[in-house]
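hiii so my PI (J.) wants the whole complex modelled not just the main chain, which honestly fair. so below is everything: two entries, each one labled with what it is. i double checked the lines twice but i was tired so who knows lol
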Amino acid sequence: MPSQNIWILLSWGPDGWIDDIAYGALITIALALATLPIGLTIGFFVAWAKQSEEPSLRLAANIYTTVFRGLPELVTLFLFFFGVPILLQYLVRYFRPDATIDVNSFVAGMIVLSLIFSSYASEVFLSAFRAIPKGQYEGGYAIGLSNWLTMRKVILPQLLRIAFPGLENCWLSLLKDTSLVSVVGLAETLRNAYTAARVTKHAFLFYGVAALVFLGLAILSSFATSAILRSLGKREAQR
Amino acid sequence: MSVVMRAASDIERPPPRARGWPRTRIIGYALVCLWIVFGLGIVSYLFFAWNADFFAKYAPAYARGLGVTLSLVAISMVLGAILSVPVAYGRMSSNRILSGLAYCYVYFFRGTPLLVQTYLVYYGLGSFRVELQTIGLWDFFKDAFNCGVFAFSLNTAAYQAEILRGAIESVPKGQWEGAASLGLHRLQTLRKIILPQALIVALRPYGNELILLVKASAIVAIITVYDLMGNAKLAFANSFDIQAYIWVALVYLVMVEILRHGVEWIERRITIHLKR
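here's the output for the full assembly
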């Protein structure tokens, strides 16, 4: 066992591993931030479909959440990461027989995490939809706003405010779920910690560092969300 | 319509169903058709890719994997429940140090990914091999399944402690005071008055935690435990046949749906006296 000084291992530079893990942390943040808008958008529309009066729309949305909340994240990821290239290859072979297709692990992770995030977020949005009284819609129609404009100008601002605490939980679990993408080879925090642990044989040290990175991100996002909540509260008070 | 006739039929009734083909209906039907096509696609794929050899070779392994998954979840859930009691006690304690410690425990295990915790136990504890050998625990932590159970129990204990705390705090304070005025001991109060009310509140979160644990248990496949997912990984690595993962996805989906509906059924049963 190489008995290197752990402070050298934890330094910045060619001998140390902290720069690799910091770079991995950036990838983690980038993945979570890239997933967030897609997941929120899909989640919003799924929730909108779920509280619609049209039964077929409700059915379609409920199947969506049942599937993506019921499947383990890892299974969804593997199905997508290994299944989609096979499917695409099958289709592309018709045009170019020699083509091979690889799925980028960042993109695969982004898509899978958006599916999972949106199915959880849709439940949050749904309960927020139910908290908004019907009079708000009627008021919107009464002053001549269209369906879409009522949704955008009247309902959505209230919806986001009600849904915010629930969405914060979804965000935290999204942040944690990004670690799963390391399994299909994305060089994010955990993956780089894994490499460092393999090379240096200081497994506990580097996994501990990875855990601290995730903990730090959680603390950072709780600061951010409380700041956002405070500004939302201020705007509420001004009205 | 005349005023008199309206008064006669002025009963609250649901709005009439929209007729014809409004836009929402078109979108809804299209999406449902998409799901049907998707489902049929998977069924027909499994039908045409039906491979008797594959099935004969891996079905017993899947059954064994299912057993491993279920025992992992059951053991972790029970150990977590036991461990969550002192943690919840610490969280509710007025002692600063005790509640601080419990808070840190819960924050750590809820703030870091389960995969990191599992790695920390399985690979990380290997760093302390000599020390563990001297106290005789190395044989326990050598086995990946034990490491999985250990990490999962610690993790779920943090979540279950929060569930327990929330449920106990949801019972109004007057219940404690009423019991105290009847001369009941604190422990008796907890057992006979508080817990029966708290557990009704806690049932749904406990059910969710169980479902989360079933889903999260797929993670142990990465640390070389041959649970359901582990066997699927093995089958895929040997055969490069994507149906390895499709079958396993179906099994997980059925498991989660059974649990979800089971919890809903129990909840309906035990809250009958609250319905009016």
